[in-house]
Amino acid sequence: MFTVTINSENRKSSYEQFESDFFKICDEHRENNRALVFSFILYDFENEHIAKILEDPHYWLSLNSISGTYLTVFSLHYKAEDMKSKLMEMIKQRMNQGTKKEFNMIATDQNPSQETNHFIQKYFGKDFKIKYPSVLFFQVKDDAISDSRLIQLDQEGIEASFLELKQYIKIAAEALYEVNRKNKYNVNELFSLVDQNVSGLRQKIQIKKGIKTVTSIAELAATVTGLNPS
What we know:
Layout: E1 2-5, H1 13-31, E2 37-42, H2 48-55, H3 57-67, E3 71-77, H4 80-96, H5 112-124, E4 134-140, E5 145-152, H6 158-174, H7 187-227
Parallel strand pairs: 1-3, 2-3
Antiparallel strand pairs: 2-4, 4-5
């Protein structure tokens, strides 16, 4: 797990450093056997459950343990306490100015999606469609993104979202368990292993959802039929 804190004391310095060194970081992780494939957790303020997962040290350590030396999982993150302090300061200023107490004003550049959108467009292309929240698996080759797979996250509760995210990271890591590190530069083949696993899991989840929907409709039809006089 590789967390990039945006609202550091020297504001945005952490993000700007990460943005400029992104490919260098990926290359170093591969060279030092810290990762074979990479991923990015994408979320914004509407997905507060994802933010809470990344803030919780127990959830974070679990994901870090699962990803191991197979995946480097990046995320852009704001410190919750810093955000709380900023919001309280804004509220206090409004109250002191005697204006209407509107608590819906948070600076737009405080949303992780602002930096994420910029970052994704820069490295994955301006036409890359982002869906929040998602986990983006990708591969790097010759200082460029060579492959990618965006998997949308559907769950909303904290525990359910954690289990969903854990599933995808775990199955991606499992695809790389048997890889000999001598083959770490076979980047396309390695990504294909991960892509097959995560795409297969996504398809299974979608099929199960479809079956549940059909079952519900069938049950409803049976109930309605049962109420009709013969």
